[in-house]
Write a structure and sequence with these properties.
With 106 residues, the protein is mainly alpha-helical. 45% of the residues lie in helices and 0% in strands. The chain contains 4 helices and no strands.
Length: 106
């Protein structure tokens, strides 16, 4: 997933869906989010890069879960991520390559 996002959007990020993120409040005034699923983290980071915001990454140490299990790898979640990713890509990147700037609202 990280490889795919980095390949398509050239954002050069290590762990896109890491839950640990800090943002300046001003980012939320400048960026409109449309995704409703797990793609929302990628959308936010991609749009922040498109707007010229600086993204700093720090390494995290992951530990195995002591309870519960992740639902991120379920078929439904993956399908929703791929659907939102394809909509986002076609809206923001394919349109811009065709010269259709009116659809590019970050």
């Amino acid at each position: 997933y990280n490889w795919l996002i980095n390949f398509l959007f050239k954002v050069n990020l290590k762990d896109i869906n890491s839950s640990f993120k800090l943002f300046k409040r001003s980012l939320f005034k400048d960026i409109v989010l449309e995704s409703e699923g797990s793609f929302i983290s990628a959308e936010f980071l991609i749009k922040a890069r498109m707007k010229g915001f600086k993204i700093i990454q720090f390494p995290l140490v992951y530990y195995r879960r002591s309870r519960g299990r992740s639902h991120l790898a379920s078929v439904g979640v993956i399908a929703k991520i791929l659907k939102e990713l394809s909509i986002f890509y076609s809206k923001y990147f394919l349109c811009s390559r065709k010269g259709n700037k009116k659809n590019i609202l970050v």
